[in-house]
């Protein structure tokens, strides 16, 4: 199905015969500064404009940017669904995780690009709509080379995900060996697909920056600058993909695969040191996908109401992005300027050994840690401002409410996890809380893609004209299952917290003798509800996909929705 959708993208590209030539180009940074500091034109209302009576062939099928978005979304949820099935099967057999499950768990690296790819596709879609006054098909926007880049990016993304799973499976089959070598076959295929994906992403970003407004529209209403939401989301995309590209290059150079394990030989290897530094930097930007989706959501909300973005919200978005950039920079330079070395931190009976940095200059390390703490605090202040603005919207469409819930879940878990790590570094302990919040963090890892899926369903429905002449919306049952997926995810989070509380209760012999059966039964019930909620999430996602691809002029009225 993924490849079928991808080839439909190619068909849409080949059907497009128009291109657009623009005026002198303006750099990305210059446009961002202009959007921040000049008096901008009133935002164009992308939802109030009526779609054309006669739809072009490619628009009637699906816009190329939305086709690419759909393909990546399907691949992402398919990978996570397969992982969930394999994990539940292994747990039902009371067996340990085998090479396949470990490979699928490691394949998160292969699908981690999905949210940012979708943000890029949404940005191009939104920018083309804004520049062409909601008629991109009339003016040939986005340019044909951007549409071709979409196709290449999607195919390369799916290929690298498959090749990465094969690579990880071959590596995990070497478990127990002191040095595990990277299989050349899978590794070379993976690296080639990664190169093609990054090249396609680069072309797409270039096309977004260089996309020009038609001359007649410029003369009619003035030039439309790059919006703050698009600027911030794509700045985060560049940061995120740059760090992961550097990490992948470092892993590729690690030919003997000393990246993993706690053997003394691997701790003194320069490539291992570089990989650990880049891992820490990549971990510091793990909130970037959700923040980028939040910026896109704010921009769509503003333009739907034909309002100007409040200065405090715009400043909050810029501050959040700047804080994330600075935090990543601090993570990279801290080990070098503090003369840190890799060491093994011995775990307990419940936790494995881990590799961490041992600093040679404690005072400098404390200073850099303080700077990083301030950056994180600024990040969450900016996120709080953005969330407060979205929550304050009255009569907002269902997708705004749903995306706001997902943003809140995601950043709440990450905020408490950050606070827990901070308190642990000061006073120690809190292992039960860290374990609980880590499980919760894994549960909310799909929030960015869930938000992207909901936004995709709504923006794709806008190209449909109902029999009454109104712009389309997702079917009623599709909207209902968006709510069900969001609430089921909340149930998962609640079960994580309850399980952490029950797991942290004292378990001495007297307590277990009296309450042992109750505790065991309670834990079993908690995990049953947790997995039931997880199944509900994926079943709801499947239903939303069905609604997404079966929406027509007759059904795009939202009739029969219970919750929306």
Structure description:
- It is a single chain.
- 71% of the residues lie in helices and 2% in strands.
- The chain contains 22 helices and two strands.
- The chain has a two-stranded antiparallel sheet.
- Helix 15 packs antiparallel against helix 18 (398-427).
- The two termini are 30 Å apart.
- The relative contact order is 0.09.
- Residues 1-61 have low confidence and may be disordered.
Outline:
With 564 residues, the chain is mostly helical. 71% of the residues lie in helices and 2% in strands.
Instruction: Specify the overall morphology.
Output: globular
Task: Work out the strand percent.
Answer: under 5%
User: How is the largest sheet built, in terms of strand order?
Assistant: 1-2
Series of H and E elements: HHHHHHHHHHHHHHHHEEHHHHHH
Number of helical stretches of at least 4 residues: 22
Query: Helical amount among residues, as a percent range?
Result: over 70%
Write the topology of this structure:
Elements: H1 2-15, H2 28-37, H3 57-61, H4 64-92, H5 99-106, H6 108-111, H7 114-131, H8 136-139, H9 144-172, H10 184-210, H11 215-221, H12 228-253, H13 264-267, H14 270-284, H15 288-304, H16 311-337, E1 341-345, E2 354-358, H17 362-391, H18 398-427, H19 431-443, H20 447-461, H21 476-503, H22 509-550
Antiparallel strand pairs: 1-2
